TrEMBL record:
InterPro entries: Sel1-like (IPR006597), Sel1_AlgK (IPR050767), TPR-like_helical_dom_sf (IPR011990). Coiled coil: none annotated. It comes from mine drainage metagenome. This is Sel1 domain protein repeat-containing protein.
Length: 157
């Protein structure tokens, strides 16, 4: 029997951060892993981060990317920023600045001005523009528009 996705994600956060309980990444992973496959976007991002940095689990860029891609398809800007960083830094994939710029463009589109994701994407895109010719930037922007057209808005769980 499965429980409530928000509750499972919340229990994962409590264990991850040690809120009124001992800090326990293994138990946090358990709760996130219960909620993520059933559609909890926040749990998908949390699992992606755990795998990306090796927090409580072995470092695994392929698994991190899998969870970030699932959350990104639900228009989660944090997942999109993380995918952009992975593409820019060649974490588990060959470096691809066009893809990185595309992910940052998508994240910025889905972020409110003044939020952390918006600020991060502005800085990342400005930095990438210093390393990319205008044609590559235009291609990345076209790719972002194509991605949005292919991924109609879905309600995040």
């Amino acid at each position: 029997m499965f429980g409530d996705l928000d509750a499972e994600y919340g229990l994962g956060l409590i264990d991850e951060h040690g809120v009124d309980v001992p800090h326990n990444l293994l138990r946090a992973f358990y709760w996130f892993h219960r909620a993520a496959p059933r559609g909890s976007v926040d749990a998908q991002v949390a699992l992606g981060v755990m795998y990306e940095v090796g927090a409580g689990v072995p470092l695994n860029y392929a698994r991190a990317r899998k969870w970030f891609l699932l959350a990104a398809a639900r228009e989660n800007p944090t997942a999109q920023v993380n995918l952009g960083m992975m593409d820019a830094k060649a974490q588990g994939v060959p470096q691809n600045l066009v893809k990185a710029y595309t992910w940052f463009d998508l994240a910025q589109t889905g972020s409110a001005p003044g939020t952390e994701n918006y600020t991060v994407t502005q800085g990342a895109m400005a930095l990438l523009r210093t390393h990319m010719p205008p044609k590559q930037i235009a291609l990345a922007q076209q790719d972002a528009q194509a991605w949005l057209a292919a991924h109609p808005r879905q309600k995040a769980l």
